[in-house]
Design goal:
single chain, alpha+beta, Jelly Rolls, four-stranded antiparallel sheet, 17% strand
């Protein structure tokens, strides 16, 4: 799915710190901008082109415009910077043969280009990102709106676009030169067709299928699908389904028709409020009502 980041003319890109507790959007998507991630702590797991990648702290990774990608899991303590660079910035910034690789639409090897930063390089890149975040919107808001769905009126903002744009230019070229000199950090796990099918069905369709129905649609038995999904994705199928339900809950709860908390819970596919409450508190560390009140005040 092609996503529109809806960046205004004043911005050459965006930057925010993604937090495992607040990040909602996990649908498979791509966008015309190059995406750069820096894992600050914990682990994040992506599925790209039918392959699973898990990245640990100090990993720098690149997602190119034609690469469909999806965050399928992150550790409870995961934090990672997300930067996106418009094609216009790429064209203006990359004028030498050394930078030609940034103009491509996908990674030549059909995987995720990445490198593990040395501690001194990691500290340098992180400090620059921290500095560029000054004057931006609150991280909690950026996390909740990550993905900028087609019906959302949210727009990325920064109090000093000129400084942000200059910083993004420098950040892009600095990180690319580090990448060219670095070594690959993370390898890929090629996903079984049944697992790829399950990811697609669960993400794109309303989650009203039983495990029996899902397994049949994927051409596998229940036990084989559950076992293989857990082994290859790194999390149980039930946890992934609950992550999708939680993302749908926030989508439903933010709709203009102002669903109640309970209405949004059931519309998201949770079988009961008790199930939702358990999943929510595990992810956010507080009750749903406390979190909703806090977000309303912010």
């Amino acid at each position: 799915m092609l996503s529109n980041l809806k960046l205004g003319k004043a911005y050459d890109g965006l930057l925010y710190l993604a937090d495992s507790r607040n990040l909602q959007k996990i649908s498979s998507h791509r966008h015309i901008e190059i995406e750069l991630n820096l894992v600050v702590q914990g682990n994040i797991t992506y599925v790209v082109s039918g392959r699973r990648f898990t990245f640990s702290a100090r990993t720098l990774l690149w997602i190119f415009p034609e690469q469909e990608h999806q965050v399928v899991d992150r550790s409870d303590n995961a934090q990672f910077y997300v930067a996106a660079f418009k094609p216009s910035l790429i064209n203006r910034s990359c004028r030498t043969a050394e930078d030609e690789g940034l103009k491509r639409k996908t990674n030549d090897k059909d995987d995720v280009l990445n490198t593990l930063l040395k501690p001194e390089s990691f500290d340098q890149v992180r400090k620059i990102m921290e500095t560029l975040m000054e004057g931006s919107l609150e991280s909690d808001l950026l996390n909740r709106e990550a993905g900028y769905g087609p019906e959302s009126d949210f727009r990325y903002k920064h109090h000093d676009p000129d400084s942000l744009n200059a910083g993004l230019h420098y950040l892009l070229l600095m990180c690319w030169r580090i990448q060219l000199k670095g070594e690959r950090a993370a390898g890929a796990t090629i996903l079984h067709p049944a697992v790829r099918r399950a990811l697609k069905l669960l993400t794109e369709n309303d989650e009203d299928q039983s495990l029996d129905e899902l397994a049949k649609a994927c051409g596998a038995s229940k036990s084989y699908l559950s076992r293989t999904f857990h082994r290859q994705i790194g999390i149980p199928l039930s946890r992934y389904r609950n992550s999708l339900r939680m993302a749908r809950f926030f989508d439903e709860y933010r709709q203009p028709d102002q669903k109640t908390l309970a209405e949004a819970v059931y519309a998201a596919g949770f079988g009961s409020y008790a199930q939702f409450y358990k999943v929510f508190t595990q992810i956010h560390g507080r009750s749903p009502r406390d979190a909703m009140v806090s977000k309303t005040r912010n």
